[in-house]
Amino acid sequence: MSNVTLKVNGRAQTLDVDPSTPLLYILRNDLGLQGPRFGCGLGQCGACTVIINGAAVRSCITPCSAVKGEITTLEGLAKDGTLHPVQRAWIDEQVPQCGFCQNGQIMTAKVLLDKNPNPTDAQIRQGMAGALCRCMTYYRIHAAVKRAAASMTAGAAPSRRSADADSEERQPQSAGSAKAGGAA
């Protein structure tokens, strides 16, 4: 055991842990963050994705001792009670079905849009390919990435009516709001 200091969502956290402990276990078990989830444990599904220094990183296979720099989890995306445009788009597009993969989807989308604020459809598909969804909500995920891109480019969230003018009305899903916002 040794002291490991991690900067998580803007706050330094010092913990006495085995340096080989996967970052995911530290985030969930020691720091109580519920955004990143254990999915496959092999770094293949993306449910555990966090952002480290601007890159999407699979926390289930990253030893905490290997982390250098700022870690952002789903809980760290909202600022002063305002959801990040990607989180807002997830709610507006009603993306979550079971919601289990949504942490990885949202974090991957944020990194994609930070690197490419106006991606093509092909770039969205390629950028999101490593984040798996067992419920197959890929069309809604794609629509949410496009909505978030438009919102981030415009500097403000588009109204639901204008963004969805040519699509069918969707029924509200209250569970989706909590899942996209990072609530347990």
Overall description:
The protein has 184 residues and is of the alpha+beta class. The protein folds into two domains: 2-76, Roll (Ubiquitin-like (UB roll)), CATH 3.10.20; 85-181, DNA polymerase, domain 1, CATH 1.10.150. Helix content is 36%, strand content 14%. The chain is built from seven helices and five strands, in the order E-E-H-E-E-E-H-H-H-H-H-H. It has helices at residues 23-30, 85-92, 102-115, 121-128, 138-154, 160-163, 174-181; strands at 2-8, 11-17, 49-52, 55-58, 70-72. A five-stranded mixed beta sheet has the order 2-1-5-3-4, with helices on both faces. Strand 3 (49-52) and strand 4 form a beta hairpin. The longest helix has 17 residues, at 138-154. The chain is globular. The model is unreliable at 156-179 (pLDDT under 50).
List the defining traits of the structure above.
184 residues, alpha+beta, Ubiquitin-like (UB roll), DNA polymerase, domain 1, 2 domains, 5-stranded mixed beta sheet, 5 strands, 36% helix, 14% strand, globular
Work out the number of β strands: 5
Rg calc:
16 Å
Terminus-to-terminus distance:
30 Å
CATH superfamily of the largest domain: [2Fe-2S]-binding domain
CATH topology of the largest domain, which one? DNA polymerase, domain 1
Q: Would you tell me the structural class of the helices and strands?
A: alpha+beta
Q: How many H/I helices?
A: 7
The CATH class of the largest domain: Mainly Alpha
Helix content: 25-40%
Spans of at least 5 consecutive residues whose pLDDT stays below 50 are 156-179
Specify the biggest β-sheet.
5 strands, mixed
